[in-house]
Design brief:
7 helices, Rossmann fold, two-stranded parallel sheet, alpha/beta, 31% helix, six-stranded mixed beta sheet
């Protein structure tokens, strides 16, 4: 535990429901903050319970695997900034980063820590961690490794903020990573999941590999009705 004199006065932390890493980060922040407010989400488009945080001020706001979208007014409630941990490298912004990385045969994947501003995956990047991808890697394996390194990254970033609350502001000019211009949207991901029978077999294999998981499946669309791929080998 870090001495309270060097700890945070108040922190707002957004995590993911049933996420072991979110719980571990919550524990760490609780040990190093006089006041911690923790809010978790389990699905997209869920609204933040503003009543718990209205008009409150925080040293930092941290987001880890959170579905919540922060508005400018809330971001401004953080004295030293709001930081998000994005499950993907800077060249894969937005939704479905892992799907598009696989589809485009990317050689690397990773996670990106960045300040949050009023746009999606757009704020100043403060830290990037990358790892190599193999042709044998599937979505679950890549995401499992991504969440592990995101957790380590989050603890490291938080520790640096504890040492010096302006640590990353002071080093922004030294960081050369930049976001790609392309922002992947829900519409892009939906299009990737839709199988076009006209496409050749090799491209179909790429689409299936980039989209098939236990909980999500690619599909054929006939007369506005979706037919999902159940088994894939």
């Amino acid at each position: 535990m870090i001495n309270n004199k060097r700890g945070f006065e108040s922190v707002l932390f957004f995590g993911r429901e049933n996420c072991i890493y979110s719980n571990k980060i919550k524990e760490y922040l609780n040990q190093n903050s006089k006041t911690l407010i923790y809010l978790e989400s389990k699905e997209r488009n869920k609204k933040i319970d503003i009543g718990k945080i209205r008009n409150k001020k925080f040293d930092f706001i941290f987001c880890f695997r959170s579905y919540f979208i922060l508005k400018k007014k809330l971001i401004n409630q953080s004295k030293y900034g709001a930081i998000n941990f994005h499950p993907g490298p800077p060249n894969f912004r937005g939704i479905g980063a892992v799907n598009f990385a696989i589809y485009k045969n990317s050689k690397f994947y990773g996670s990106t820590a960045h300040y949050i501003d009023h746009k999606i995956d757009n704020g100043k990047i403060i830290d990037v961690v990358k790892f190599k991808l193999s042709n044998k890697d599937n979505i679950e394996k890549i995401l499992g490794k991504t969440h592990q390194i995101m957790f380590s990254q989050a603890i490291r970033v938080i520790k640096n903020c504890l040492k010096n609350k302006k640590y990353y502001y002071s080093n922004l000019k030294k960081i050369k990573f930049r976001w790609s211009k392309k922002l992947y949207t829900t519409k892009d991901l939906e299009k990737l999941y839709e199988i076009n029978v006209v496409k050749n077999k090799s491209n179909l294999d790429k689409i299936i590999k980039a989209t098939y998981t236990k909980n999500f499946k690619p599909f054929l669309k006939i007369k506005n009705r979706k037919y999902f791929l159940i088994n894939y080998d």
